Amino acid sequence: MLCTICGSGRVPETPVEGNFANPRGEQNQTTTKLESQTPTDPQVKTVLDKMAAAGVARPTTVADVRKAYLFYPTLSGSPEQIFRIEDRDIPGPAKANIGVRVYTPNSTSGLPIFVFFHGGGFVAGSLDTYDAPLRSVANRCQCIVVSVAYRLAPENRYPAAPDDAYAATKWVAEHGSEIGGDPRRIAVGGDGAGGNLAAGVTLMARERGAPRLIFQVLIYPTLDASTMRPVWWEETDVPTVTRDVKNDILRLYLPVTGSGRDPYVAPLSAKNLKNLPAALVITYEDNPMHDEGDEYATRLRQDGVATNVSFYPDMIHGFFLMAGDLAAGKKCIDEIASALRSAFKGASQNPP
To answer: String of b and e for 263-302 (b: at least 16 CB within 10 Å)?
Structure first.
């Protein structure tokens, strides 16, 4: 199911077909059919029924999936009141502006800042899609949240998305005081493809020497371009991101000359993960990307990076967006806010 794709712009109407050409030979693997499974959480069952009734349970084209993401906010619950929301255009790397939405929870100056990159398989997602959960994160953490509308594929292929993500983070570091923030306390995060961008931004910041980041939140992130892991060859009836979907996303995202081993495409391909900010990695059951998150967390720890992993059983992709219907979505928001508060407090007590 293409549950990780949505957005705006001109949309191909034909089904997304074909496999992403992978030099590692995934096509030679054998598919294993698992026993039929259905989620046991009654809230998840209700959400799946709602998606089916709306005709967005199993989209097969980019247009279908972008339509699905217009539906997902109906599962987010009522947006919380917040002190101030401001939409801005900031300079981007392609002689075009990047849209950002700034959530400010109170009138205090010098608040810490959380830069967020939405999910959507690099081809979908919007500021509006993630409005409700980010209001909640800002209120619970009492930090400024900057949500980034990076350029989407297939209209804008790699490296447009990570270039925009890094440019927005750098702008926040350089202009944070203008939005009432403390540029010495910046964290980054995102879900799905946004988790990939957040991890990539930490690598870029390390290699380029700026900006200084103190924490990263990776919510069921995609961190590898390969589908060689055996888990990608297990078929299940539980809605998740499948091997074919991942390959199709990469085909839409990467240019012909792109490499699946580029660490800004696949952070797991980075030679080392030393000197990166502390991390919270959130994963869930029945998700092939669970293995990628676990492996990345292990490598972070091996390279001396303080890392916590939080596992959500019996969940579906996108549950961070579904706090209106899923208790796990509310718990995820609370956990992220708590982790950010701790990270920001630690940075206040131990300034650079």
So the answer is: bbbbbbbbeebeebbbbbbbbbebbbbbbbbeebbebbee
> Contact at 8 Å (CB) between 324 and 77?
yes
C-alpha 32/C-alpha 190 separation (Å) is 31
Q: Which of 279, 352, 287 is nearest to 316 (CA)?
A: 287
The angle formed by the CA atoms of residues 72, 126 and 185, to the nearest 5 degrees, is 110
Distance in Å from the first CA to the final CA of the chain: 45
Contact of 71 with 119, CB cutoff 8 Å: no
Q: Which helix (H) or strand (E) holds 184?
A: strand 181-191
Sign of CA dihedral 100, 104, 109, 115: negative
Helix axes 327-349, 131-141, angle to 10 degrees: 40
CA distance 140 to 340: 10
How many Å apart are CA 165 and CA 159, to the nearest integer?
Answer: 10
List the single range of 72-81, 225-234, 248-257 with lowest mean pLDDT: 225-234
Per-residue confidence band for 105, with pLDDT thresholds at 50, 70 and 90: very high
Alpha-carbon span 201 to 193, nearest angstrom:
12
23 CB neighbour count, 10 Å cutoff: 9
User: Which residues on adjacent β-strands are paired with residue 144?
Assistant: 113
pLDDT tens for 158-178 read 999 999 999 999 999 999 999
- Which residues does 322 contact at the CB level (< 8 Å), separation at least 6? 47, 72, 75, 76, 329
pLDDT band at residue 241 under the 50/70/90 scheme: low
For 28, the token pair is 């030679």
How far, in Å, CA of 337 to CA of 352, rounded? 23
Three-state secondary-structure class, residue 227: coil
Which tokens belong to 209? 């020497």
Predicted confidence (pLDDT) per residue in 189-199, tens digit = 999 999 999 99
Q: Which of 110, 179, 169 is nearest to 142 (CA)?
A: 110
Entry field: residues in the chain: 352
